[in-house]
Design a protein that fits this description.
Helix content: over 70%
Number of domains: 1
CATH architecture: Up-down Bundle
Distance between the termini: 40 Å
Number of helices: 5
Radius of gyration: 20 Å
Largest sheet: none
Shape: elongated
């Protein structure tokens, strides 16, 4: 009887652990998608008059496939707006918008905010 009880307990423990790992993996995927939203938003806000954005919907695509609400999207969008206002330029005075947005994407500030928004 003890072996059966132990076996039953072990099966339940493995099931719960598997479920927890799956949920953690999903949260990590959603965090990554929200960071990608931030990157896309930063690029757009850095150069909104570009014709490129007329048919570009990557940020919306990440939002549609992610599991985070509009509040998280708006928070990240506000952060992207602030970052987009920073001036990054080369020694030859060329715009470095992609570099700026990649720095934002990889920033601890964004990582911490995304972890707070997507649990």
């Amino acid at each position: 009887m003890k072996k059966l009880t132990f076996f039953f307990f072990a099966i339940i423990l493995l099931f719960v652990a598997g479920f927890t790992i799956k949920e953690r993996r999903k949260s990590n995927e959603d965090r990554e998608k929200l960071k990608r939203v931030a990157f896309c938003s930063c690029l757009y806000k850095s150069n909104p008059k570009s014709d490129f954005w007329e048919n570009e919907g990557s940020a919306a695509g990440y939002f549609e496939t992610g599991n985070f609400g509009i509040d998280a999207m708006e928070t990240i969008d506000s952060m992207a707006l602030e970052i987009s206002k920073k001036k990054y330029s080369s020694k030859l005075d060329k715009r470095l918008d992609i570099m700026k947005c990649m720095d934002f994407y990889n920033s601890k500030e964004l990582e911490d905010k995304v972890k707070m928004l997507v649990k």
